[in-house]
Amino acid sequence: MDRDMVLTRHRAREENDIIQIRNERQNVEHSNSEELQIINTDEQCCSSYNRQSQCMTSSKLHMSAGDTHDNNAMSQSISNIEAKVASLENSLLHVTQDLTHALKNLDLQNNRDKSLDSHRQNRLQSHRLAFSESNTDSDSIPDPDNLMFNSSMHVNRGNKHYPKLPPFTGKESWNVWFTRYEDVAKRQRWTLDEKLDEILPRLQGIAGEFVYGQLNRDTISDNKSLCKELSNRFRIVETSKTFWVQFSHRNQKCGETAEEYADELKMLYDKARVNRDKETRKEDLRRFLDGLIDDKSRFYVEFIKEPKNIDEAVFQTVCFQETKQKKRSYNENIRHILTDSDNSDIECDVARIAPGKNKTRLIKKEVNSVHENLSNKIETNDIDKLREIVRAELNALTAHQNQVEFHKSCNTAPKAQFM
Fold first, then answer.
1. What is the dihedral of CA 251, 257, 259, 265, to 10 degrees?
2. Quick one: 172 exposed, middle or buried, by C-beta within 10 A (0-12, 13-18, 19+)?
3. In terms of domain of life, where is this protein from (predicted)?
4. Least confident interval from 68-72, 76-80, 291-295, 335-339
């Protein structure tokens, strides 16, 4: 009786499993090609399950027909069969979970595709309306099928970080601006419509007046035609001869540093002479020295330092100009020292040396002598040291004046007795 109950229970379970597998097969057959791999695994599981069930049935029949005295072996075989059945049930559970997950993903993908298609249709419809309003001629409206339109890029464009291009006013170099614009468009993979959306708001000043005041709407609506018109209008034709003329007439401007002047000369010479060697590089050195504003700097660098190239000449020129600037600041410091509160001390010393005499002329004379001595001795900008040196010079002048007065008194004393 126990054996019959076990057999009937397992047979009922097998029938339920087979019915469930058939239902799942019918559902899977209506899904698309992405579920084929999962269905194959399901069939493999079913076949393995059938083989296990057949083995179980045959083993049970063998047990019933075999030796009925070996109860321990029979119970062990039954437990093994039940363990295999449990593992098969777990595998079927995992398969059903994978199927449900795949169906959910398919539904989400279908909904996303539908939303993208609707968005694309709306954009195309708005594009048609814009062209129909701007031009009454139907031939001028482009075919939407021929438009280079990428809906996914338009949808995700707001989430990306795009570099900010500078505006083009017509005063900038068109070649430089257009090269930057094309490089950015190539890296960002812009379509023709996106290029047009980026370039139109950046046309300002003279360029904006030219585009929106002189060009027709068909040219403005086409990116290639627009860029061609802008290139014809703002592109400067420059050859090696024009660069050579600019190089030969280029001099240092007022307020321009030696580094900026040298960089400009190098740029002009590189464009004028593409293949340069050591001999031709001496020409930009000659042009640099001839174009310097400061004659003293040119004489010092050319005849004293004798640079071999333009970089060395720039370095020597900058050093010479910085030295001149230090001397100029030193002279200003001397002037401030002689005009500050220490002038009262100088006047007191002068009044003590020569009482009752004109102070202004004497002060100017002594100050000039002090200034000459300081210009030969001082090479620093430290105000405290300068003040100490001024006081030392004044003390020396005081001692000298005392000696002069002593000699004068010695010379006039006998004359007074004689009188």
1. -20
2. middle
3. Eukaryota
4. 335-339
